[in-house]
Design goal:
The structure holds two protein chains of two kinds. Chain A is 90% helix and 0% strand. By secondary structure, chain A is an all-alpha fold. The N and C termini of chain B lie far apart (50 Å). By secondary structure, chain B is mainly alpha-helical. Classes of the chains: A mainly alpha, B mainly alpha. Chains A and B meet through helix 3 of A and helix 6 and helix 7 of B.
Amino acid sequence: MSLGLIAIGAAVAALCGAGAALGMGNATGKAVEAIARQPEAAGKINSSLMFGLIMMETCAVYALLVGILIVFILGAKA
Amino acid sequence: MLNVTLFPTPCYVFGVNVGLSVVMAWCVMALLLTGLVLLNILVVRKMKPAPTGAQNYVELVVDGIHRWAEGKVGHAADFVAPVSMSLMVYVFFNTIVELFGLPPATKDLNCTFAIGLCVFITVNVSGFKFRGGLRGRIKGLCNPSAIVMPIRILTDLIAPCSIAIRLFANIMVGGIIMELIYMVVPIILPAAVASYFNVLHVGIQTFVVGLLSLIYVSEAIE
């Protein structure tokens, strides 16, 4: 396998970050709107926001892991 | 080229390959146990109704986590909060050793998968305990309707894998990024980045493990 294809594979894996970033931005924006509307519910909104952010962060970290494994393991073989 | 592998670093104890992470976890646990026994003798045995000195901090941590758990799982907090806190202490001290240049035990998939299994057992035991045996647990699994039961069972089975891979990937990737930064800029910058990857990141991962265990339990008992 050529090194170029491996680099393209890693780049495609990193595209997952775009989805995670969109989701995180959307969720945080909605949470800020909700807190602005109901400041007394900030605690509950924050904890559910945190749970959602953790899920999205996991998605991004999986992509990062796949990218790093492609670069270092396949790249070391090529 | 950086040497990256998913397999644990071999380490031989009496001729048996147990892996470096297990030996590290033993060392950390030995230190931790010594510290906790000292804490028990010096502070917990001498507890007074009006707290003074170190008792304040002990009460702050234990009470804080108990109250946090109560907000998530309600009356089950008496059972779940100690488990959650033990997991958090284990993850925190096994990961913070990276700050001193030692290989953290949580960088190994075996260690994090064990943590995931602990969460899985806690979730199922509390599911049986607080919903009234097998019938209640199955009823809880087909909560909106019986059709979703396979999906909910699948979700429960994936939970430990999810916790394991998340923690492992976070710690391993943090370590790789630190090593890459050491390669490119060997002075000043690593110190600044280490304050995130080796201190703040550890705190976040600890918090995440505790939060996830509480959330999975609250899903099982509600």
